[in-house]
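Forwarding these from the shared drive since the link keeps breaking.
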Amino acid sequence: MRVRPYLFEAAAAGGKRRLGVRRARDVRHLAEQLRGERMIPLRSWALPSFGGTAEVGRISLKDEAELHTQLSQLLSRGVPLVEALEVCESAVSASMRARVKRMREAVAAGSSFADAMTAAGGFDQVTTAVYRAAERTGDMAGAAKQLSTTVRRTLQVRGKAITLLMYPVIVLSIAVLVSVGMITGVVPQIVDSLRGQVTSLPWFTEMIYSVGMALRNNALLCLTLVGLGMVGMVVFRARVAAAVGRLMRTLPLMRDVVLAQESARFFTVMSAMTRTGVVLSDALGVAEAAIGHPKLRAELTRLRTRLIEGGVLRVLIDEVATLPLATRRLLIAAERSGDLQQAFDTLAADMADEVETRSSRLLAVLEPMLIFLMFIMIGSLVLSIMIPLLTITSRVQGI
């Protein structure tokens, strides 16, 4: 659900005026939020959103997994939906309770569960579509169980993705901090002490010394530029994320991990959708929206379009060249036997394992590369000190 920031003025308890910034879908949604906090909205102004309107307020995957798990266990034992939501309200985190309460009140008032989720906000299209189909088939407990499995698989895949991104960032950040400390503190101090003993220093040492002194003398300017860079990355985070995504899809080993992640997400969504009786073309329409890989998404969109036009599914599956050949052959065999749902579930689990394998392989390659890069960064600074020292030692020995 797309939201944007608003600056508001409201009357709080006791007649006090309060100014603040709040993110909301529109002015009406902002007023509802303020009234929920016992404030009367007076005026509001829409603020520019430099990063674009974003889906803020999306519930965490841990809360979503807990919600689906509780619903699955309670509904399968015959607990009414309203009472099950009351239990879920106490099981989720504090930030999620208000949303579950609104869902419970909407269901108690006669709204469908899928409509209540849409009104509460924070749930993706896949979740609402699965529950909407489950309400038609009467298998809400089965849908909740499948979604719980889906979300936990997503958590597993996302955890690996975060590890792959954070590991090199942390190692390189440490290397940069150590290098800056050496180049601005250690190297200038040692070089100054060597100038009285050596008539001329190597050009490499002089260059490192000049860079270090420039950084030291312009420390405030450098810190300002770093701060502006960090602010720019936050403001334009959508573009930065898109650029990082494009880079990850082009690097040799990383692109295999990205493709495995996207495939795992696609098959997980398709498994959840088809299990609840959603028509294959509709399931593809929802699943392709969850895919971020441009080539795979384009091929799936073409498959869905041609399937609606009357194309043969097994032929169309074979044209999705981004997927591995073995995966396409398995889907074709499942389509012939009429067991696509089981194939989607199996492929979702297999792709999650594939992400694990490829991520471990990539980390094994990254470790020596990062060590080599740290050696280049810190070793060059050490050499800038060692070369003059070796020169002095050789002269002393020659005397």
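-- next protein --
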Amino acid sequence: MISDGEGEFLVKLARNAIETYITRKNIINIPDDVNPILREEMGAFVTLNRDGDLRGCIGYPEPVKPLAQAVVEVAISAATQDPRFPPVTATELEEIQVEVSVLTKPELVEVGKPAEYLEKVEVGRDGLIVEKGMYRGLLLPQVPVEWNWDIEDFLANTCMKAGLSLDCWLEEGVKLYSFQSQIFSE
């Protein structure tokens, strides 16, 4: 995927995007000399934490935009558009820690029967997307590790994130996608 140096650049880019937008309402431009790999389309999430608690997290799970551009957009959205939190204020900026997750393309987890998910998904390696009809929920790979969940807890909480029952992963017609991510933080 990308190097540690490129990841460090993305974290600084996200921080700059957030600070510039909150203090001046401007959206920064991507530098012309950015590494070509950061112009490739990749999924990305930006997570904001304050005092160890989640303060915002938004992203693109699919590779729909050039990575550097995606990071700028989701950084601003994580700070200002996460419906779970009020927008980050200028006085909070110093207390916020920025984390960037660069995602692989989500792939359908193919199983003969739902119980096989327990063997195919690995906590700490995989992020999950649960999809049923118009409902869709995503959890990044670091979430079950942070909460010390086992695989069943991870599946149940991903279902809950989608607004579905905790055991929806056992139902007919539910699709499960997995992806991996590289995580870079301040």
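The two ends are 19 Å apart (CA to CA). The domain at 4-103 is CATH 3.30.700.20 (Glycoprotein, Type 4 Pilin).

- D.
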